[in-house]
Design goal:
Order of helices and strands: EEHHHHHEEHHEHHEHEHEHEEHEHEEHE
Number of strands: 14
Distance between the termini: 53 Å
Structural class: alpha+beta
């Protein structure tokens, strides 16, 4: 193989005939304490401490987090939002107003701006009687803030938010997110549809149409927030951008807010097919469609933050173990390296000169891109994982009311 071979994304390298993942990053984050920020107003410090709490998937204070918080909120907004502590659901705007000596109208105006314009927090129910609560930066505010139908809709505030979030991610802040079995049930990646159609054991649970169908007409599509962010920091790829799917009541709200557009099932499946053909793989949330909204995106290994957490930092992510894993027939394999180039997770390494091969199951998400790209020797197939258990529904029923 010639050295001019190009990787489909920046986390796969071709060096001295070896095609495989780049070396993992080192975390550069330096955790600090409140006393390290003597010049920062107390309201920002209080909000930062809330986001640093493990209940909001935080990992302590750091410069990157503090800079992001001071961009997300004005000082007056921070004075209100600091009372939305992790796990607090019943604090009324009236009580916040008493604590800050603000009028109820001022508090409601701030809360509604944060929930409906900036999309930093969530509101259940209608104002003024709704319940307001904080959500993690990721997964949470990162997605809701940047979900738009076009990059042209983003303001300078959004663009700076994306850049500051990427600084936080690149420092390794999210690398230690809790990866307990319960949290790993959040999302699962699905084998690409071409493989599903040829494998009866994958039906119907892994067929996209059967996953989307229970949500009826409540289907919406918007821009992928990860690829949008990487495009903003000038590290984007050329894969399709309009692939992020919202289903259920959240879809209706997103359409109403102008942050996504409604799609029919036929168009949605066509979008997903084109996404898979470009090398993207699709994930879905593990929720009960009768009780909750859901989301589903089509991801690339170079931009998706879930994938990059594994491939850039060699850290686990909240991904449910795959139902399918590739099976390799080395008698047919020519060590051409196409599978390694196609793998979005860098789970395959091929030495095209020494004719050696390595598959890292800890990175593999069972998407099947290696199979469809093995066109020369057809030496890869997919098989169901022995004793595989379908993921439980996650406890996210409250999404149905947002």
């Amino acid at each position: 193989m010639k050295e001019s071979t190009h990787s489909p994304h920046r986390l796969i390298q071709v060096k001295n005939g070896v095609i495989g993942p780049v070396n993992p990053k080192k975390r550069t984050i330096k955790l600090k304490v409140i006393g390290d920020y003597p010049g920062v107003p107390k309201a920002f410090l209080d909000v930062a401490q809330n986001y640093a709490d493990k209940k909001l998937r935080g990992h302590g204070l750091c410069d990157e987090l503090m800079e992001l918080i001071q961009h997300m909120f004005t000082e007056k907004e921070a004075m209100v939002c600091r009372h939305l502590k992790p796990g607090v659901w019943d604090l009324s705007p009236q009580e916040i107003g008493k604590r800050e000596n603000f009028s109820v109208n001022d508090v409601l105006e701030i809360l509604d701006r944060l929930a409906k314009e900036k999309r930093i927090i969530m509101r259940m129910g209608d104002s003024p009687h709704g319940i307001y609560f904080a959500i993690p930066i990721v997964p949470g505010a990162f997605e809701t803030v940047l979900a738009h139908t076009s990059k042209d809709q983003l303001t300078s505030w959004h663009l700076k938010f994306a850049k500051l979030f990427e600084n936080l991610f690149n420092a390794g802040y999210t690398a230690d997110h809790d990866d307990t079995p319960a949290n790993k049930s959040v999302i699962r990646y699905l084998p690409i549809n071409k493989l599903v159609e040829a494998n009866s054991t994958a039906l119907p649970a892994d067929k996209l149409e059967s996953i989307y169908e229970p949500f009826g007409k409540s289907l919406a599509i918007t821009q992928c927030q990860c690829r949008m962010t990487m495009d903003i920091v000038e590290q984007g790829c050329d894969r399709p951008m309009e692939v992020c799917t919202i289903m259920g009541p959240l879809a209706e709200q997103s359409i109403q807010d102008g942050r996504s557009r409604r799609v029919e099932m036929k168009e949605l499946l066509e979008i997903k097919a084109k996404a898979e053909a470009s090398g993207l793989v699709t994930w879905t949330m593990n929720v009960d469609p009768e009780k909750s909204s859901s989301t589903s995106c089509s991801c690339c290994g170079c931009c998706c933050h879930y994938m990059r957490k594994v491939s850039e930092f060699s850290m686990p992510a909240a991904i449910y173990p795959p139902k399918f894993l590739p099976v390799f027939n080395f008698a047919l394999c020519t060590n051409c390296g196409k599978c390694a180039l196609a793998c979005p997770m860098g789970a395959i390494e091929v030495d095209t000169r020494r004719k050696t091969f390595r598959h890292d199951k800890s990175r593999c998400i069972g998407c099947g891109q290696c199979v469809v790209n093995c066109t020369k020797s057809n030496s890869i197939s997919m098989d169901v994982v022995t004793n595989y258990e379908e993921p439980p529904f996650m406890g996210f029923g409250g999404l149905s009311d947002l």
